[in-house]
What does this fold into?
Amino acid sequence: MSESTLSLYGSTLSGHVHRVVLLLRTLGVPYRFVDAPRAVRSTPAFLALNPLGQIPVLQDGDLVLADSNAILVYLARRYDAAGTWLPTDPLGQARVQRFLSLAAGEVAFGPAAARAITLWGYPGDAGAARGVAARLLRFLDDHLATRRFLAAETPTIADLACYSYVAHAPEGRIPLEPYKAVCAWLARVEALDGFVHLPRTEPPAA
It folds into this structure.
């Protein structure tokens, strides 16, 4: 593939950014990573890219696109020549969309929120977030008991959208050991070509 003009604005500790990094790497798409810490996201230059001041933001030539799940859909359609990361049939697309919605809902309000509250003191109810995470993990464990991946027989963007915050649930004091099928799925995602870990952070002492 020829040199790309892609730039990805984000933070190395963000699960939302990590899901985009994983797809770029598995697709072999070259890109430039632009560190955008919280102070940068309130600057006029960044707000011109995303008025909501959120990461990630993808710049592909003249295109500027925000929202991690939207970016996953774009990259899968634009750069996945094999078409495996986002199915084209109606049922396949619906199955992927179900888990993109889960990533924006229960994953964000469960393990992601618990992690942010525990590690960085974000406002919120850690107990409530852990309750959401427990329900999510039970659902995923049952779902994955007879499946290798979330939405298809092969990995899709659904797996990448849900992986990062589920894998890092222990940083929000949410144990994964009881969920054997989830742990096996995490290992399968981690075995993908191009996979790179999101840096782990130890939670403070309780």
Q: What stands out?
A: The chain has two domains: 6-79, 90-190. The first strand starts at residue 6 and ends at 10. Residues 90-120 form the longest helix (31 residues).
